[in-house]
# Entry
Amino acid sequence: MKKSTIAVIISLAALALIGIIIIQVYWMRNALKLQEELFDNSVSVTMKSVVNRMFDERTTPGLEPFVCSPDCDHRTQQILSAINPIRLDSLMHEEFDGMEITRQYVWGVFDPSTRTFFAGERGNRTNKILTSGHRVSLSCLYKSEQLMLGVYFPNESDVLIWKIVPWMIVSLVFVLVVAFAFSFMIFSFMRQKKLSEIKSDFVNNMTHELKTPISTISLASEMLLNPINMVSEEKTRKYARMIFDENQRLQQQVDQVLQISVLEQGTFKLDLTNFNAHTIIDQCVTRFELAIKNTNGTIRFHPDAHDFQLNADVNHFQNIVCNLLDNAVKYSSGKADITVTTRNEDGMLVIGLVDKGIGISHDNQKMIFEKLYRVPTGNRHDVKGFGLGLYYVKTITEALNGKVKVRSELNKGSVFEVFLPLNVSVATYEG
# Structure
């Protein structure tokens, strides 16, 4: 699939997800507005019911008349006698409790034209009552003035929001699930694309690596079959040696590929013995000195560890060191400059390998220990290998209860460190 097509699909899916989120927010806002309207209607019905009951009780015998305080003027006394604030408060409690609106409210009777307050809650909430949208006329109780009964709810917003909180939570959970699924699918898709590139790179390199020795063997065989060359014993030996060497190389490459299933299944066994780690490392360094001799490269070994006796598998340990050295040589730009060190740290032997090669980017460092992974190079084959070396190093090191660390910068080189316990308490590894 083309990158442009992938980008379009991801963009459309992202826009669809954003659209879903916007629609959910829009629905939540509408739900809140609906709750506000329902609340306003409930309050209005309740307040009208209170006024109607007050009107019905005006001529009911047995109700004690309201007595105004001595400092009341004649007008206030008439108003309070007509509306009876004590009975009004009692009826409001009954009605509001019956409607199950909220128990937290304050009320007041006032003249909206003069903003004169006659009864109810006084203090810092007086202005809230005067400006409240919840009000009803009291003209049926006192016709001389345009009196209003106002109610203010201090926690009105909280009451309304809590009515839709469960739906908001459910909606949020669904949106998060969809967002997580979308992100996971994109991540999985990109990972599969990355693995596809790795597989393609592996196939290209494997084809190239296997084709070279096959071509060489074929050419050498043709030369041996040529009657002219049969006369020369020297040429016969030369071509025979060439066939033998290329066959050995081909066998090593096939064995390396076959190691994938063994390492992945974790059924290999470790033959633990006590040995001198410095001796094995020195043998590996000596072997690679010959490999970089023609490039004027240098390789140094600084055995600084004071405790270097390991209880591990000698062959696997040697392969770990050789694989790291092989990578350092292959990824050195120009002549190789490699330093191998050892030290002791927290009861472990630390083998460090420092090179001044091309380095590894931060993103690729996270994947270099994965099976078959090689830093993508397209169709270039200037660096040989199948991407199994570091996977092998990590797998065997962890089988020996150790660990591998890497630090690297592009164009500055890399530092690999292998931590192995001085006493390995396992006899076999069953992954």
Remarks:
- The CA atoms of residues 3 and 9 lie 10 Å apart.
- Residues 191-265 form a domain with the Helix Hairpins fold (CATH 1.10.287.130).
